[in-house]
Amino acid sequence: MHPLPVHAAELTLDQAHQEALNGNADAQFNLGKAYYTGTGVPQDYAKAAEFYQKAAEQGNARAQHNLGTMYTKGLGVPKNDVEAAKWIKKAAEQGAALAQDGMGVFYAKGRGVPKDCNEAAKWYLLAANQGLAEAEFHLGQLYLLGDEKFEKNYDEAKKWLSKAAARGKAGAQNCLGVIYEFGMGVKANPNEAFNWYMKAAEQGEARGESNVGRCYSEAIGVGQDKVQACKWLLLSADQGEVTAVNYNIAFQRHLKPEQLEEARKLASEFTPKAPSATPIPSR
Questions:
Q1: Which of 26, 154, 182, 257 is most buried, with most CB under 10 Å away?
Q2: Could you tell me the sign of the dihedral formed by the alpha carbons of 9, 124, 205, 111, in that order?
Q3: What is the three-class DSSP state of 147?
């Protein structure tokens, strides 16, 4: 979860100080942001939380979300998931998409609230319907994996993951690769799977990189290429992806020294692509 974006029309810092003393919630929010980022003042998370709290208590949704985020991370306030969920829910109830997605995460993981994937799906859907790619990804992933009290639905999973993937969400692109590789609600299509894995990998998504490496190693949707396989596995392993680490240890035994050297060179030259983003509708 990340702090909500700041509205375009904001007070100057000097104005914010004066207006905050007069109880202006927007000014209090602006001061909280200034202290959070260290813009115009020394960075001070405790002061940021103090001003966010003042604005949040007056119903400022951005401040509520950002205060909740600070409780999640333990910045300026003690780490406390219950307090985080309380404040983020207040923002979510006002229609803030990032906060709605945040509540989905809380319910999906049982952080600060009892675990409830049905409740998570409800909040994710509210944010996804506002065009938030992160929520589309989370909702699709929830339908893809399910749990003991939430039934899998591959059609819904593909629907929402496709939306997020089209917005450039790398995690969703990797999940679509899984759907097509293993035929989850669709006819298995290794070529399509590889294409989606590659889109994720090109953005530096560790699981996508691992899957591309595996595809090159095992000729899944693409011709076998040991150097390319090693390159992508190295990139994924460097991010701590356990499956890539374990796979690559065994895989490298079958490489010639010059192949391993070339793979390492290619990995060192790799630069992730930036995702194509779709702005969140303003509220």
A1: 26
A2: positive
A3: strand
At 9 the pLDDT is: 42
Give 38's DSSP letter: T
Give CA–CA dist 111/118, Å, rounded. 15
Which residue pairs from 189-195 have beta carbons closer than 8 angstroms and sit at least 24 positions apart in sequence?
189/221, 190/215, 190/220, 190/221, 191/221, 191/222, 192/221, 193/220, 193/221, 194/220, 194/221, 194/222, 195/221
Judge whether 190 and 220 are in contact, CB under 8 Å.
Answer: yes
Q: CA-to-CA distance for 276 and 98, rounded, in angstroms?
A: 19
How does pLDDT run across 133-158, given as a tens digit for each residue?
A: 999 999 999 999 999 999 999 999 99
Q: pLDDT (tens digit, 9 = 90+) per residue, 71-98? A: 999 999 999 999 999 999 999 999 999 9
Contacts of 90 by beta carbon, 8 Å cutoff, 6+ apart: 56, 59, 61, 64
The percent of residues in the chain predicted with pLDDT above 90, rounded, is 82
pLDDT > 90? residue 13: no
Residue with tokens 């969920």: 85
Within 10 Å of residue 279's Cβ, how many Cβ atoms? 8
Q: Determine the Cα–Cα distance for residues 30 and 11; give it in Å rounded to an integer.
A: 7
- In DSSP terms, 150 is beta-bridged to 147
- Structural domains in the chain, sorted by start: 18-94 (1.25.40.10)
